[in-house]
Design brief:
By secondary structure, this protein is an alpha/beta fold. The chain has 13 helices and 7 strands. The protein is globular and about 60 Å long. The structure holds guanosine-5'-triphosphate and magnesium ion. The site of magnesium ion has 6 residues, from helix 3.
Length: 303
């Protein structure tokens, strides 16, 4: 589809290369690249999609991307595929591959395998998002499987968090009720062509009505289905509403600080694990205090 653009299309190979380099980067390389991030100064709108395996995240994102490609010159999608056994089997079998569904020169899609077994994220998702800023993307959509720690991290890293539920997500709605889940900005009951979608949506609304939101944004609940094009438009509109609200938030500096804190802690954690693995033979037979001192000493030496 032709489009009038004031900027040339992005260099697909260069973006792919930067992301690969970043995905495999050492901590020293990440720190060296961070000056480029600051210099680029770009700020893509960040939208996170999280939810149980098979909830329909990739399907929804593919449809949404077709809908939103017109309003962003450069639209990126990063999908983190869990590599752990609990999401294997049938769900992996019929998982939707977004790159087969969207062919558009304004859209860049890339999947990554998650690193740690029980986390639906790669170690350095914050750095990958930064790479998209360096390449001047207007909007980036992040797909992750929502398990435990992931939701907390995604909540920090994105502006707009969309949680995908299905009519069968009763357990997750119970967990919401118990306050065991991070708050999303938009709740989607996907697969609304199946029975009990309306009931699930009402259950979520009831939970939200009793929860005191941490901000003055009022979370929206939307039913979607691949069989209803207008539901994708409704979701897209809700994302726009939230993005407009986010842009007027007064605490942008504290949002940036939380993201920086996470990124910093993640870099230290990775460096620490690497040092412990590399030095197992040297330190681990010593008393804990001595091993600790040695670790801190080496952390200081390696940047
Ligand atoms: N009936 C119905 N099926 C759907 C709908 N959306 C997605 N599906 C199906 O659900 C299955 C999983 O869809 P995916 O988009 O791969 O789900 P996902 O959440 O990305 O899955 P993972 O990435 O494996 O966590 C596929 O067989 C889809 O065709 C829907 O609206 N209605
Ligand atoms: Mg998927």
């Amino acid at each position: 589809m032709p489009h009038s653009s004031s900027r040339p299309a992005f260099d697909r190979r260069a973006v792919a290369k930067s992301l690969s380099r970043c995905a495999n980067a050492t901590v020293a390389e990440v720190l060296a690249a961070s000056t480029a991030v600051a210099a680029a100064g770009g700020n893509a709108r960040r939208i996170g999609f999280t939810g149980a395996p098979g909830a329909g995240k990739s399907t929804l994102i593919s449809q949404l991307v077709r809908h939103r490609a017109g309003q962003a010159e450069r639209l990126g999608v990063l999908a983190i595929d869990p590599t752990s056994p609990f999401s294997g089997g049938a769900i992996l079998g019929d998982r939707v591959r977004m790159d087969n569904m969207v062919q558009d020169d304004r859209v860049f899609i890339r999947s990554f395998a998650s690193r740690s077994a029980h986390d639906g994220l790669t170690d350095n998702v914050a750095d990958l998002l930064d790479v998209m800023d360096i390449h001047g993307f207007d909007e980036v959509i992040l797909e992750t499987v929502g398990v435990g720690q992931t939701e907390y991290v995604v909540r920090i890293m994105v502006d707009t968090l969309v949680l995908i539920l299905t009519p069968e997500s009763g357990d997750q709605i119970q967990a919401m009720k118990a306050g065991l889940m991070e708050t999303a900005d938009i709740y989607v009951i996907n697969k609304a062509d199946r029975p009990n979608a309306r009931q699930a949506a009402n259950d979520v609304r009831a939970v939200l009505a009793q929860t005191s939101a941490p901000t003055d944004w009022k979370p929206e609940v939307i039913e979607t289905s691949t069989q209803r094009a207008d539901s994708i438009e409704q979701l897209s509109d809700a994302i726009d509403r939230h993005q407009r609200w986010f842009a007027t938030r007064q605490d942008q500096a504290s949002v940036a600080r939380k993201r920086r804190a996470h990124q910093l802690a993640e870099i230290v954690r990775r460096q620490m694990h690497r040092l412990i693995a590399d030095n197992a033979a040297n330190w681990l037979d010593r008393p804990l205090a001595a091993a600790y001192s040695e670790l801190v000493r080496q952390l200081q030496g390696h940047s």
